[in-house]
Amino acid sequence: MTVVSLQVRQLEGSSLLDFISVSDDSILSRGASPGVTALRNSWVIAGFKQPHTGKTILARHCRVKFCSLKLRISAIASGATCHQSAAGFPLLADRSSMLRSSSRFPAADRSSPSLARRRLLASLAGAGATALLGHRATAQQPLKGVLGYGSVGYTWAVPYIAEAAGYFKQQNIELSTSSFESGRDAMQALLSSSADFSASTDTPLVFAALSGLRPVAVANYSRYSRDMKIAVRSDGAVDPNTPASLKGRRIATRIGTSGQYLVARYLELAGLNASDVTIVDLAPNNMATALTRGDIDGFCWSSQTVAVAQRQSGGKVAEMTFDGIERYFQSHQLLLTTESVIEKKPELVQATLRALFAAEERITTDRDWPQLIAERIKTPAADIAQATSTFTFKIGFDQRFIDDLVSQAEWAITAGLTKPPKGDLRTLLRSLVVEGPTKVLRPDRVTLT
Question: What's the CA gap between 172 and 139, in Å, rounded?
Answer without folding.
Answer: 8
